[in-house]
Amino acid sequence: MATRRAVLKATAWAAAAPLLAACSKKGDTVPEGELLELGAKAAVEHIRKGELKAERYVARLLKQFEAHKDLNAIVAMNEARVLEAASAVDGARARGDALGLAAGLPFAVKDQIAAAGYPATGGNGALKGYIPKENAPVVESVVKAGGIVFAKTNLPDMVAGNSLAMAAASANPTFGTPRNPYDPRRSTGGSSGGNGAAIGARMVPVAIGEDTGGSVRFPAAWCGLAGLRPSTYTIDNMIRGSNRKRYSDAGIVVPPAGPRDTFGPMARTVADVAFLDQIITGEATPTVAIGETRIAIPRPDYWEQDFIDPGVAKVILAAIAKLKGAGAQLVEIDFDAVRGIADDRLTAALATDSSRDLEGWLRTNLPGVTIADVYKDRPIPPVGLSEGMPIDERVAILTGAAARYAEAFVTNGVAAILSPTIPIPAPLLNPTGENPDQTITIKGKSQNQLAIVIRNIFWGPRLGAPGLNIPAGLSDGLPVGLELAGLPGDDAKILGIGIAVENVLGRIAPPPLMNKG
């Protein structure tokens, strides 16, 4: 399996190994067996108090990466740089310098996102030579707070890929396919699949992904993680001609970002996703009492439909029962009617000129690479596609959809809408290559796998709404995620509700690989 790693090992790894034993003799009090399960916020707090050396922590994570390279989660790493940055944090603390909110926090970055000094290929082999000199603003906000870029993670070809099925599995013909930490034979989901594998396998506590139609929430669901798609205000931006988003979208390869593209934080807990969100935005997450929270849930007939795996239904219904038992106010709604607000008419109204000035970008950033190099034997799409729909009709559809979505919240008096993130658990990877026609059997019926996978994750981005995946439990050893969707701008509220839900449901079991040596 082809991989790419910019790794400086000769002296770095030799220096890292003794740290795992030696640092514990220099004041570290966090037991070795607890390091991999540390959450982001807990790790930073231990480092701040001097209870854990940042260098010891990243050395342990590097060892975990080495032990599970077969998951193909990471495509670029500079171990010497990571250890040096961690050592600098330890030095700053020893001197009594003020430490940032994320001091010593290792985080991964999807290889579609600019991190200074690391390749940013967007999953396309022709772009291996593109090494940004600056961080994407979202990455920079974490680095400025003391965070350490740990690695760049695997993903499908986001530049010239021509198969949604491959993107949904993070399958990449150049860099290979990441593997699910709960079962390496299975998909991580996509397209931030490398993040899912790396966090799930405890190589890193948090990561920054990218979500256009589900690419953060989807792998989070299948890899047992929390993941936030922040608000993109898509409808409002289309009407106003603006580009308001909770997170800056600068630094996506290849620019420009589209109206639904957004970065999103991923972690093993909602609390850590909220921690990363606060570092990025400066907005604190409110404390929410589960007994004072009204959440919409699908009506009973929803769970009987053919596209929902019985195991997934069982896990989500058990989670709903726990929430009800904890005092949450649950309101039954026609979830498919809400999901249907983002119908084909809305999709057409959101259509924009899909062309990108790829030639111009290549001339500026990689003058030796051509369009033909990027697409190889795949057809090059036409430039300057027509938007088609008259502006008055477009605005009417957009405003109508936004109003109906808001009405679903107001009429039912709810703060969030709960649903299964993905109606099926992670399927086996296709040994002959992922394709849009492959099927999966649910309740004895053969059904189109891709159609079911995207069913619950595509509608929210079209409305510009925030969506949060929360690990709900395991079905036959595989993670099941539930999603909380909110109104555009309610990100902090959704995170607060998510933490309250997480506190009721508890943590899911780690993947089996954590029990092996």
The number of distinct structural domains comes to 1
Number of strands: 13
Strand order of the largest sheet: 1-3-2-4-6-5-12-13-9-7-8
The SS-based structural class is alpha/beta
Overall pLDDT = 93
Fraction of residues in H or I helices: 25-40%
The fold-level CATH name is Amidase signature (AS) enzymes
CATH superfamily: Amidase signature (AS) domain
Give the CATH architecture: Alpha-Beta Complex
Distance between the termini: 24 Å
Rg calculated over all Cα atoms: 22 Å
**Number of H- or I-type helical stretches:** 19
Classify the beta-strand content into a percent band: 5-15%
Features:
36% helix; Amidase signature (AS) enzymes; disordered N terminus; 13 strands; 517 residues; alpha/beta; 19 helices
Q: What does this entry look like structurally?
A:
The chain has about 525 residues and is of the alpha/beta class. The protein has a single domain (about 30-350, about 385-505), classed as Amidase signature (AS) domain (Amidase signature (AS) enzymes). The strands form two sheets. The chain has an eleven-stranded mixed sheet, with helices on both faces. The protein has helices at about 10-20, 40-50, 55-65, 80-95, 135-145, 165-170, 195-200, 215-225, 235-240, 270-280, 310-325, 335-340, 345-350, 360-365, 370-375, 390-410, 450-455, 460-465, 490-505, and strands at about 75, 105-110, 150-155, 205-210, 225-230, 260-265, 295-300, 330-335, 415-420, 440, 445-450, 465-475, 480-485. It is globular, with a radius of gyration of 22 Å. It contains 19 helices and 13 strands.
